[in-house]
Amino acid sequence: MAKRPIEAGDQAADNRANQPSLTLHVPEPTYRPGDPVDFAHLEIPDAGNQARPDEQCEAKETLPLCYDLVRVLGDDNKAYGPWDPKLDPEILRTMLGHFAMVRAFDERMFRGQRQGKTSFYMKCTGEEATSISAAMALASDDMIFPSYRQQGILIQRGYPLVDMINQIYSNKGDKLKGRQLPIMYSSRKHSFFSISGNLATQTPQAVGWAMASAIKGDTRIAATWVGEGSTAEGDFHSACTFAAVYNAPVILNVVNNQWAISSFSGFAGAERTTFAARALGYGIAGIRVDGNDPLAVYAAEQWAANRARANGGPTLIEHFTYRAEGHSTSDDPSGYRSAQERDEWPLGDPVTRLKNHLIALGEWDEDRQAAMDLACAEEVKVATKQAEQNGILGHGLHHPFRTMFEDVFEELPWHLKEQSEQAIRERETKFPEGRPGT
Ligand SMILES: Cc1ncc(C[n+]2csc(CCOP(=O)(O)OP(=O)(O)O)c2C)c(N)n1
Ligand SMILES: [Mg+2]
């Protein structure tokens, strides 16, 4: 066998004796339970200091916005700078009303889960602006591809509370017939796509829908919401590639609430760059926005919507925010993060900020706020009582068991037919007396 010639790399290998061993970096959150919290390292720019490029600019012109933070509301609760959307106070009050409603709804549904009326619930506390203010900047028939924390959009679009609660209780009034996990709503009428438990699947679907809208020569655009943790999924990257290649009329909203259940954002790459900056590598416009500033969120979404509707292409918006409560009713964040984080979060609370802005404008006061909160709680209570007539978890008032095989295929394929017959037979053997709902 011929002798292998010496390669330059082999000689280099001989000289490596003095080099350090290779190591990996494993991200670790800064604060664990019991740690004092200091967010002083976060760069929070002054409100009004960010330039607003032309909506039809080249994607690369948004580079500064990808590392900055678009902010409109100052510490004095007044609006500043070129991103101020200059909304009529009436619109701001409507926005505050949606905030109050989603908060009242979240509170009651959370309690309902603790009382055993449903198996599962997810709040969006602290993130209300990222969905409600953003959706208000879209047309009401633009297509929404949500994740599971955008209940605010359904409320903003006027979906009946009682239908939401029926779905949460999986009762006989549930329009989805108990086939989805509680809170995974969908409504064609409200242009609100089915929520999927498989993270990030909604992102390529939104891009595909936007491409179809363009192919048809329509004027509706698509907007999707995805958590920062979920951007680590391959689907998100396929979505970005397709969106960029075909200049799809789509808005990719990345909600960076710092946590993905118990994994901090470092595991999705937050220690290396911003989520907004990822847009640039694909040739997509990017904006990083203060997600707790309702005016800034509205303005960013409006910029992206105008861009998409005028065939300027896709935009990726990173909403920099904080998940103030647990991931879901199945979670207990005191086990993995400092309880102090919520209070120390430097961008405050979106509801309080909008309320204080309206008060600063002389368009609102604390008494009206208290009355609004009370009215929302009452409306949710009435809807809850109404939904409870249709049944709650464990009371058997759900859609009949056998119906779970219906509606998916026009004609049930033979193997599902076999499965359904077997399932029904087994159930009859197990419960010969019959059970409600069988
Ligand atoms: C493909 C897939 N992987 C993992 C999960 C389990 N899971 C559900 S929610 C979640 C965290 C997602 O965090 P993030 O995307 O930041 O959204 P957030 O909950 O913060 O809104 C995980 C890991 C899942 N549902 N689907
Ligand atoms: Mg998250």
TrEMBL record:
<keyword id="KW-0786">Thiamine pyrophosphate</keyword>
<feature type="domain" description="2-oxoisovalerate dehydrogenase E1 alpha subunit N-terminal">
    <location>
        <begin position="20"/>
        <end position="59"/>
    </location>
</feature>
<feature type="domain" description="Dehydrogenase E1 component">
    <location>
        <begin position="100"/>
        <end position="392"/>
    </location>
</feature>
<protein>
    <recommendedName>
        <fullName>2-oxoisovalerate dehydrogenase subunit alpha</fullName>
        <ecNumber>1.2.4.4</ecNumber>
    </recommendedName>
</protein>
<dbReference type="Pfam" id="PF00676">
    <property type="entry name" value="E1_dh"/>
</dbReference>
<feature type="region of interest" description="Disordered">
    <location>
        <begin position="324"/>
        <end position="344"/>
    </location>
</feature>
<comment type="similarity">
    <text>Belongs to the BCKDHA family.</text>
</comment>
<dbReference type="Pfam" id="PF12573">
    <property type="entry name" value="OxoDH_E1alpha_N"/>
</dbReference>
<dbReference type="GO" id="GO:0009083">
    <property type="term" value="P:branched-chain amino acid catabolic process"/>
</dbReference>
<dbReference type="InterPro" id="IPR029061">
    <property type="entry name" value="THDP-binding"/>
</dbReference>
<dbReference type="GO" id="GO:0003863">
    <property type="term" value="F:branched-chain 2-oxo acid dehydrogenase activity"/>
</dbReference>
<dbReference type="InterPro" id="IPR001017">
    <property type="entry name" value="DH_E1"/>
</dbReference>
<feature type="region of interest" description="Disordered">
    <location>
        <begin position="1"/>
        <end position="31"/>
    </location>
</feature>
<dbReference type="InterPro" id="IPR022593">
    <property type="entry name" value="Oxoisoval_DH_suAlpha_N_dom"/>
</dbReference>
<feature type="region of interest" description="Disordered">
    <location>
        <begin position="419"/>
        <end position="438"/>
    </location>
</feature>
<keyword id="KW-0560">Oxidoreductase</keyword>
<comment type="function">
    <text>The branched-chain alpha-keto dehydrogenase complex catalyzes the overall conversion of alpha-keto acids to acyl-CoA and CO(2). It contains multiple copies of three enzymatic components: branched-chain alpha-keto acid decarboxylase (E1), lipoamide acyltransferase (E2) and lipoamide dehydrogenase (E3).</text>
</comment>
<dbReference type="InterPro" id="IPR050771">
    <property type="entry name" value="Alpha-ketoacid_DH_E1_comp"/>
</dbReference>
